[in-house]
Design goal:
- With 239 residues, this protein is α/β, with parallel strands linked by helices.
- It has a single domain, classed as Rossmann fold.
- Helices cover 46% and strands 14% of the residues.
- Strands 3-2-1-4-5-6-7 form a 7-stranded parallel beta sheet, sandwiched between helices.
- Strand 1, helix 1 and strand 2 form a beta-alpha-beta unit.
- The structure holds NADPH dihydro-nicotinamide-adenine-dinucleotide phosphate (NDP) and the ligand Nc1nc2c(c(=O)[nH]1)N=C([C@H](O)[C@@H](O)CO)CN2.
- The ligand Nc1nc2c(c(=O)[nH]1)N=C([C@H](O)[C@@H](O)CO)CN2 binds next to loops.
């Protein structure tokens, strides 16, 4: 059996686009979902293993790891995509927001990476090529955010974990990050917000999921890139 690729938070948007792309390439896929969107049923019909996981507690993260080992004995890659773009304005309980942001963006990848290394190494032994861990971070790691302070800090923690895990797991497992700025808007985004956001990058477009798919393909096909963060940000750093 081919070693599956694990994608967290694949019920919608970028995670779902990645799952459909990798399935179409012939990969076996394991996805986690919190809300059972219709898309999850469609992924299951295409042969994906779909595991419910709400990473809102340490126990839930640990329960997922048990589930994962019940479904496979090897992994080609792990793509940590699950995320909550939450902000201080919507959360009067700052302590809870900080904990939630750190748990989904840093603690969940940290605990899964530590627990699943055996599965990734089994792939490397079988195929004699490195396995992969890919962290979806955020351009905002470079500059912080006055409106998403806890979110940005948690993504910065994930960026740092990229370097630590790369050094810890080399040469049998590569660990990289993809740091996007705007990729796709949310349905509720106002015209005003969209216009303002498009002006933040040199390219001035909403590029869509294809940009992340291309970046994931590049990292999976490399045997040499590790410990790096791939910026996918339309030249936002030069505006
Ligand atoms: N979209 C963009 O323009 C940008 C995206 N990124 C990053 O790229 C990645 C994908 O972005 P996008 O597709 O917009 O992500 P979404 O905001 O659509 O979230 C992805 C998934 O994460 C799941 N999720 C959220 N919280 C939890 C939790 N506690 N436990 C389990 N799953 C959870 C959601 O589940 P549910 O369906 O139940 O809500 C959702 O399906 C993210 O890491 C994001 O931070 C970075 C910069 C820009
Ligand atoms: N989990 C999410 N993280 C982020 C999202 C999102 O929709 N879900 N969106 C952004 C923005 O597009 C930002 O990059 C530009 O305003 C950031 N992170």
């Amino acid at each position: 059996m081919t070693s599956p690729i694990l994608i967290t938070g694949a019920g919608q948007r970028i995670g779902l686009a990645l799952a459909n792309h990798l399935l179409a390439q012939g990969h076996a896929i394991i996805v986690t979902y919190r809300t059972r969107h219709q898309a999850i049923t469609a992924l299951a019909q295409q042969g994906a293993v779909c595991l419910h996981a709400d990473f809102s507690s340490d126990a839930a993260i640990k329960d997922f790891i048990v589930q994962l080992y019940q479904h496979t004995n090897s992994l080609r890659a792990i793509i940590h995509n699950a995320s909550s773009w939450d902000c201080e304005a919507n959360n009067p309980d700052s302590a809870a927001l900080f904990d939630d942001m750190m748990r989904i963006h840093a603690k969940t990848p940290y605990l899964i990476n530590l627990a699943a290394s055996e599965l990734l190494l089994n792939y490397q032994k079988q195929q004699q090529q490195p396995a992969d861990i890919i962290h979806l971070t955020d351009y905002i790691v470079e500059q912080g955010s006055p409106k998403h302070l806890a979110y940005a800090a948690s993504k910065a923690a994930l960026d740092n974990l990229t370097k630590s895990f790369a050094a810890k797991y080399a040469p049998h497992i590569k660990v990289n990050a993809i740091a996007p700025s705007l990729i796709i808007f949310n349905e509720h985004d106002s015209d005003e917000y969209r216009a303002k956001t498009l002006k933040k990058s040199l390219m001035g477009i909403e590029p869509g999921c294809r940009e992340i798919i291309n970046s994931v393909d590049l990292l999976l096909n490399s045997h040499y890139i590790t410990g790096r963060s791939m910026p996918v940000d339309g030249g936002r750093h030069l505006k």
